[in-house]
Write a structure and sequence with these properties.
The structure holds 2 protein chains of 2 kinds.
Chain A lengths: L3 E4 L2 E4 L5 E7 L5 E8 L3 E10 L2 E4 L7 E2 L9 E3 L8 E8 L8 E2 L3 E5 L1
Parallel strand pairs in A: 2-11
Antiparallel strand pairs in A: 1-3, 3-8, 4-5, 4-9, 5-6, 7-8, 9-10, 9-11
Chain B lengths: L2 E3 L4 E5 L4 E3 L2 E3 L5 E8 L6 E7 L6 E3 L2 E6 L4 E6 L8 E9 L7 E2 L3 E6 L1
Classes of the chains: A mainly beta, B mainly beta.
Chain lengths: 113, 115
């Protein structure tokens, strides 16, 4: 089944404890992206990747890192999480750039205390 | 700058009613893409439709239909004979041709369909 998977689905952590949210897609998509969803602010892009080893910042990259060592994986790293990073995170992928539909993972609900 | 406005925040209808969700967008690009996504209570984002700026044909898929009008910069979504399972948050989104296929989302419309 073609899908985008994320792990963990739920995570409660404490300020400053490094964490990684994994994202994997099995559709051989070139483009991958991370969004966060917050009440009143909607969905905002954090980082994106056009292909292996090519990543760039989205609208709200502060406090996050990403890597794209393999085409299928695009982990989101929070080196020192803070409470303002409490959010619902979505990974997305699409076949290519420029207007192809993006398929989203199930979401990761992160709480930082 | 791109912007998507979904002026309706919450809509409540009774099952079998028709409902239209409005979406107005702003962009300076001549080539762009419009999308609708559904977010049911379970939280995932489900792709519904994609339209490019050169294709103004309306589309129908079962009970769903979409009306794209460049003259008014609108891409409205109609659900005919709504069902309880249609209850969700619906997002309209916009992207353009460029290095980043970022989706610019509207704030979403919460649709509640009552039995």
């Amino acid at each position: 089944e073609a899908q985008v998977t994320q792990n963990p689905r739920y995570l409660i952590t404490v300020t400053g404890k490094k964490l990684t949210v994994t994202c994997s897609q099995n559709m051989n998509h070139e483009y991958m992206s991370w969004y966060r969803q917050d009440p009143g602010l909607g969905l905002r892009q954090i980082y994106y990747s056009m292909n292996v080893e090519v990543t760039d910042k989205g609208d709200v990259p502060e406090g996050y890192k990403v890597s794209r060592k393999e085409k299928r994986n695009f982990p989101l790293i929070l080196e020192s999480p803070s409470p303002n990073q409490t959010s619902l995170y979505f990974c997305a992928s699409s076949l290519y750039l420029a207007g192809y539909e993006q398929y989203f993972g199930p979401g990761t609900r992160l709480t930082v205390t | 700058a791109q912007k998507v406005t979904q002026a309706q925040t919450e809509i409540s209808v009774v099952e079998k009613e028709d409902v239209t969700l409005d979406c107005v967008y702003e962009t300076r690009d001549t080539t762009y893409y419009l999308f609708w996504y559904k977010q049911p209570p379970s939280g995932e984002l489900v792709f519904l439709i994609r339209r490019n700026s050169f294709d103004e044909q309306n589309e129908i898929s079962g009970r769903y239909s979409w009306n794209f009008q460049k003259s008014t910069s609108s891409f409205n979504f109609t659900i005919t004979a709504s069902q309880v399972v249609d209850s969700a948050v619906y997002f309209c989104a916009l992207s353009y041709t460029g290095a980043n296929s970022k989706l610019t989302f509207g704030k979403g419309i919460t649709l509640s369909v009552r039995p």
